[in-house]
Amino acid sequence: MTDLADRFEKLKSILRDAGSAAVAFSGGVDSTFLLSVAKEVLGDKCLAITADSPVIPRHEMEAAVAFCKEHGIRQIVFDPNVLSDAVIRSNPADRCYHCKKAVFGKMMTMARENGAAYLFDGTNKDDEGDYRPGMKALDELGVRSPLREAGLTKSDIRGLSKETGLDTWDMPSFACLATRIPYGQEITPELLGKIEKAETVLREAGFKQYRVRAHGDLARIEVALSDMNRLSEMRSLISEGIRNAGFRYVTVDLEGYRTGSMNDVLS
Predict the structure, then answer these.
(1) DSSP secondary structure letters along 118-133
(2) What is the value of pTM for the model shown?
């Protein structure tokens, strides 16, 4: 067996040993793969729990619901009401810790109430190298990350997703809309809606990997470096669309798309 095959079997063994589980399901590459394998291994002893809030783009929510319906997976969708928390709304550097603690705390309760022995999330091995205060919250709550436990990287998960026929294998990486807002700037439903509308402009224009970072009235666009020329060719259409979303100024980040660019201000 190859190393990847060994890691895949280790994942299945972890799930099998769990006996029953709830999967925190966002519809992204990692949680979709984890939920798919959990359904295969655990059958009806597996369910999905999905948080629906203003920080989640509508197209991602719709995809998550559609996946569960298509695959016959029981899904619980709930609103964690994260913006009612003043600390989360104030957007400190450890916002993700507070948000994860609140959201996954509620998920843990739902998992127990529905007979699941564990709550699993889609954290993978590569996530260990980034600034992710939310991982501390998951550890404190006792949420398990089978993909990380099995040593599976993002590349592994994409490859296995393709092999097992999941359409999400080449889905771009996404994160909650709050990651588009500089630390210390208040998170409001109105600002999140403006960002989502601006990113919809890029998605509908055919861009796959993108971000619109909000700096007051200025929208900073990040796209893959390979898409820079196309973005320039479409600049009038893109600029008009993002202005219509509510931004006064539109600029392009010459470094291109990169995860966690808002963390550049952190020491």
Answers:
(1) EEE----GGGGGS--T
(2) 0.91
